[in-house]
Amino acid sequence: MSRFGEQVPGYLLGKQQLIATVAFTVLCSLVFLCLAAPFSDNLWFSFTSLKPFGMTVLYWLVAVLLLSLSKVLMYSRRMRRFRFAAYFFWVAAEILVVALLYAAFNIYGAKSGIVAMPEGGFSKSFLNALLYSFVCIGVPHAVCGMYFALQDKDNTIRVMNYGNVVSDVPVQPHEEKRITLFDNNGVLKFSINSESLYFIESDDNYIQVWYRDSNSEIKKYMLRCRLKTVEESFADSDLVRCHRKYIVNLRNVNILKSGKDGYQIDLGLDSIAPIPISKTYEQAVLARFNSR
What letter would DSSP give residue 260? Predict the structure, then answer.
């Protein structure tokens, strides 16, 4: 399968990531246009004359609003198997809409006598706007995407390096590996024997770890970390993803039961309701059970 057919990783669709992308895009576009405007006959942005300045501010606010609404809609669809092809077309549509908006403002301003009529009319204005929009939107998106990818890879590596954690308990070769979790800043936050962990629940950009403490009490611990990072880091362990919101520890599964809404995992605890298995992960979970 080509890259375009793959599902977009969560680090591109998180709430803070999308907010950061919009903010970085606005900043980059402002810097670019301020630098380019004095040297271009096609840019009408002005910060000195009153009417052109007003049109500049209005255009800016409308463009930022459109980008923000686009990201809100993108965030709301993040769990619907958002693929790379759809993501790239989505960003391309943002560039196209902002370019059309620019050209429309340009023509309106020219007809109203606010700015000079662009040579070549609407088509020429739109083509120029398309180029500017690609630089102001496409390039910041690419930079943000690379930054978030590197950040996610760094977080994954940090979580995987749980064998290097300093401990006052000597680790024997036969001993069970511990589940050790770092937050998004690479700070060690949670370490526990794998048999004491029941499941991990996603809560936006946080996770809640449900576990049994030394007094056999069921507790939960929250830290800032992505569920996808945990899934990738402990792929060869007893932790298995069963739902977009849950990772369960197969060691502590009491019953796997089937109902009218699909399979559910019962951990045998009164305080914890059965955990659903979604259709997306059903076959993988059943295969893990059958192999045990």
Answer: T
pTM above 0.70, yes or no: no
Three-state secondary structure call for residue 9: coil
CA gap 211, 106 in Å, rounded: 60
**What would the pLDDT profile of 39-59 be if each residue is shown by its tens digit?**
665 566 665 677 777 777 888
Residue type, 7: Q
Round to whole Å and give the CA distance between 132 and 201. 43
Q: How far is CA 7 from CA 14, 49, 155, in A?
A: 14, 48, 20
pLDDT tens sequence across 168-211? 444 444 445 678 887 777 777 888 888 899 999 998 778 999 99
Contact 162, 191 (CB under 8 A): yes
> Encoding tokens for residue 129?
């706007």
**Cross-sheet strand order for the sheet of 275-276:** 255-259, 262-266, 275-276
Q: Could you tell me which of 15, 77, 22, 8 has the C-alpha nearest to residue 224?
A: 15
**Which residues does 223 contact at the CB level (< 8 Å), separation at least 6?**
181, 183, 189, 190, 206, 207, 209
Q: Where are the beta strands (DSSP E) in 164-250?
A: 178-182, 188-193, 197-203, 206-212, 218-224, 239-243, 246-249
The total number of residues shown for the chain amounts to 292
Distance CA 132, CA 34 (A): 12
Paired residues of 202 in beta bridges: 207
Task: Report how far residue 133's alpha carbon sits from residue 108's, in angstroms, rounded to the nearest whole number.
Answer: 19
